[in-house]
Amino acid sequence: MTHTPRGFDPNDSYDAPTTQYPRAADRTSGSAGEGATTGSQAGPDLVAPDAATGVEAPRAETPGTPVPAPEARQVTRAGMVWAAVACALVVLILLIAFILQNQEYVQVKFFGLTGSVPLGIALFIAAVGGGVLVAIAGAARIIQLRLAAHRQRAGRQSGAVARTR
Question: pTM for this structure?
Fold first, then answer.
C-alpha cells in the first residue's frame, strides 16, 4: 500500500519544524500530556522544557517578546596576552625542533670572518638579523610619521594663537 503525500501545514504538529526555542503560543497553551506548561505553572523568569526537544528555554515576559540572546564574550587584555604567549610557545617549540634536527656543522664566512656553526643555529641567527633590520626600518618610519604629525599640530596651534590676537 502506498502513502499519498500531503501538503505542508505549519499548524500540524507533525509538519511543524522543531526549534530550540518554541513559539510563545506553544509554551503557554496545550494539554499537560504534550508536555506544554501554562502561565500559572511557571513564571516569566522561570525555565520550562520544550516538549519536542526537551531543551529548557527561558520564557519571554509576553508572547510577542523574543528570548534574549546570550551575551557576547568580552575581549580583555589578559586574554590577548594569554593568546599571544600560547602562540609564541608553539613557535618556540617548532624552532627548537628545527634547530635540533639541523645540527650538522657548516662553514660560515662573513666579512672575512670564518667559522663553523650548526646549520640550525646559523639559520636562526640569519632570521633574527633580518628581523632586526625590519624593526629598525619600521622604527625609522614611525619616528618620521610622528615628527610630521607633531609639526602639523604645532602649525595648527600657532595659527590658532595668531588668529585670537
Answer: 0.44
